[in-house]
Design a protein that fits this description.
- The protein is mainly alpha-helical.
- The chain contains 20 helices and no strands.
- The radius of gyration is 25 Å and the shape is globular.
Length: 465
C-alpha cells in the first residue's frame, strides 16, 4: 500500500513539474509575442500617422493650386531648397526614398555604421520633411519613407527590449530592420502579404537573413493592426473583369512600353541631373545643390500647370479614377508625371518613388487604352501597366505584382500581373542593369563608411594633439 502511494505521489510530482515547465515555456513565448505585437503596433501607428499627414497635405495642395494658380510657382521653387537645407542640416540620411538606406544598413557591419542611416531620432524627421514636400506639390510618395521609419522604429524597440532581456534575445539588428521595414510597407499599403514578399525579394537580396518566424509575425502584425484600425479596405478601388480579349497581347504591349519607360526612369534617377548636363556644366550641379532644387521646383511647377495639376503629389486620385474607368487623362500626362518624379528626386528632398511609379504606370495604361479606343476593360490595362512600370523601376516583379494585387483586390488576374512584371523587369535591365534600390543602397553604404572613417580620423588627430 505504501509503495503504491509513494509511486502515485512521485507520479503527481513529475506531472506537476513537467506541466509547470510547459507553462513557463508557453508563458515566455506569449511574452515574446506580446512585445513583438507592441513593436508591430508602433510601426503601424507611425505608418498610419504618416498616411493621415500625407493625405491632408495632398488635399491641401490640390485646394491651394485650384484656388491660387500661382501657388505652385512659389511653393516649389522656394520650398524645395528649404526642405533640402533642413534635410542636410538635421537629417542627411533621409534624402530620397528610404528603402536604399535600409538596404545599406543591412549590408553594413554591426556597430555604429549600421545604425547611422536608420537612427531613430534622425529618421523620424523624414515624416515632416516628406509632408512638406507633398504640401509644396513635389511628385513623391510616402511608402518608401514608411519603410525607413518602420525599420528605425522596430530596430530601436528591439534594442530596448533586448537590453532589458524582455524579448528579441535571439534576433540580430538585421532581423529587426527587415521586420520593421517590411512591416512599414505592409501597413502603408494595407497589404500584409505584400510586406512578406517584399522582405523576401527585396530585403533578402544579397544579404543573409535568418528569416525566423518572429520576423514574419511582426510583418503580418503590422499589416493586421492597420486592417483592424482602418478596416479591410483595398488601397485602390475598381471592378475588373476576368480578362480582356487577346489578354496576352495587352500584357506584352504594356510590359514592353513600361519596361522601356521604367528602365530609363531608374537610370535617370541613379545618374542624377549632372548626367544630362554638358560635361562643362556637370561640376556646377554639385556646387549649387540649392539652386538646382529651385530649378527643379520651377520645372515641376511648369509640368503641373500644363497637366492641369495632375502631376502634383502622388497621383493617387488620378489612378483611382483610372481603375474605375472614369479618368479623362490629359494628353502627355504620363510623360509629365515621369518627368516630375525624376525632377523631384533630383532635388534631393525626402520622398519615395513607389506610389508615383504606380501612378506613372497607371497613366501609361490609360493612355494606351485611349489611343487604342479600348473603352470597356481599360482599367485592366491600367492595372497591368501599374505592375509593369513598378517592376521595371525596381526590378522586383513579385513584390510589384503582389502589392498591386492586394491593394486593388485583383487576385484573379495575378498570373497576368506576374507575367507583365517579369517581362517588364527583363526589358528594364537592358537600360538599367542594376536594380535601382540596391544601386542607390551601395552609394549610401559607401557614404556612411566614408563619413565614419573621416570622423574617426578627426578624433584620432584630436587625441594626438
Amino acid at each position: 500500500m505504501n509503495n503504491t502511494f509513494t509511486h502515485f505521489h512521485r507520479r503527481l510530482r513529475y506531472i506537476y513539474h513537467h506541466k509547470s515547465r510547459q507553462v513557463r515555456r508557453l508563458s515566455h513565448k506569449w511574452v515574446a509575442l506580446f512585445y513583438a505585437f507592441i513593436g508591430a503596433s508602433l510601426v503601424a501607428g507611425a505608418s498610419m500617422l504618416f498616411a493621415y499627414m500625407a493625405e491632408w497635405a495632398l488635399h491641401k495642395n490640390t485646394a491651394l493650386v485650384k484656388q491660387y494658380p500661382w501657388f505652385a510657382w512659389v511653393a516649389l521653387p522656394l520650398g524645395l531648397p528649404l526642405i533640402l537645407w533642413l534635410t542636410r542640416t538635421f537629417a542627411p540620411y533621409t534624402a530620397g526614398s528610404g528603402i536604399p538606406q535600409v538596404l545599406a544598413s543591412l549590408s553594413l557591419p554591426y556597430g555604429k555604421p549600421k545604425k547611422r542611416a536608420v537612427g531613430f531620432r534622425e529618421t523620424l524627421y523624414k515624416i515632416p520633411l516628406t509632408f512638406l514636400g507633398m504640401l509644396a506639390g513635389a511628385s513623391i510618395g510616402r511608402e518608401g519613407p514608411s519603410v525607413q521609419v518602420g525599420a528605425a522604429v522596430m530596430a530601436s524597440w528591439g534594442r530596448w527590449c533586448k537590453k532589458r532581456n524582455l524579448a528579441f534575445t535571439g534576433l540580430q539588428d538585421n532581423d529587426l530592420l527587415a521586420a520593421g521595414a517590411a512591416g512599414g510597407l505592409a501597413a502603408a499599403f494595407n497589404a500584409p502579404l505584400a510586406g512578406v514578399i517584399f522582405a523576401i525579394e527585396e530585403m533578402g537580396r544579397g544579404v543573409m537573413l535568418r528569416w525566423e518566424r518572429t520576423i514574419f509575425i511582426c510583418i503580418l502584425m503590422a499589416g493586421f493592426v492597420q486592417v483592424a484600425m482602418n478596416g479591410n479596405n483595398p488601397y485602390f478601388y475598381g471592378f475588373f473583369g476576368v480578362a480582356l480579349p487577346n489578354m496576352f497581347v495587352w500584357v506584352i504591349v504594356g510590359a514592353l512600353v513600361c519596361g522601356v519607360a521604367g528602365g530609363l526612369f531608374a537610370r535617370l534617377l541613379l545618374k542624377g541631373a549632372a548626367w544630362v548636363m554638358p560635361k562643362r556644366s556637370r561640376a556646377w550641379v554639385g556646387k549649387h545643390p540649392f539652386l538646382l532644387a529651385a530649378i527643379m521646383g520651377l520645372l515641376i511647377a511648369a509640368i503641373g500647370t500644363l497637366s492641369g495639376g495632375d502631376t502634383f503629389g502622388t497621383g493617387y486620385h488620378q489612378v483611382s479614377d483610372a481603375l474605375r474607368g472614369s479618368y479623362d487623362a490629359p494628353m502627355g500626362v504620363a510623360l509629365g508625371k515621369w518627368l516630375a518624379t525624376i525632377f523631384s528626386y533630383w532635388a534631393g528632398i525626402p520622398g519615395g518613388i513607389f506610389t508615383p511609379s504606380l501612378t506613372i504606370g497607371g497613366m501609361i495604361g490609360q493612355q494606351i487604352a485611349d489611343w487604342t479606343h479600348l473603352g470597356t476593360g481599360s482599367n485592366v490595362v491600367v492595372l497591368i501597366c501599374m505592375v509593369a512600370f513598378l517592376s521595371a523601376a525596381t526590378q522586383s516583379p513579385l513584390t510589384a505584382s503582389v502589392v498591386v494585387m492586394e491593394m486593388t483586390g485583383s487576385q484573379h488576374l495575378l498570373i497576368w500581373l506576374l507575367l507583365g512584371g517579369l517581362v517588364a523587369a527583363i526589358v528594364s535591365r537592358q537600360f538599367c542593369p542594376k536594380p535601382f534600390y540596391h544601386a542607390a543602397a551601395a552609394r549610401f553604404r559607401q557614404r556612411i563608411l566614408d563619413d565614419c572613417t573621416s570622423k574617426q580620423t578627426v578624433l584620432l588627430i584630436e587625441y594626438k594633439k
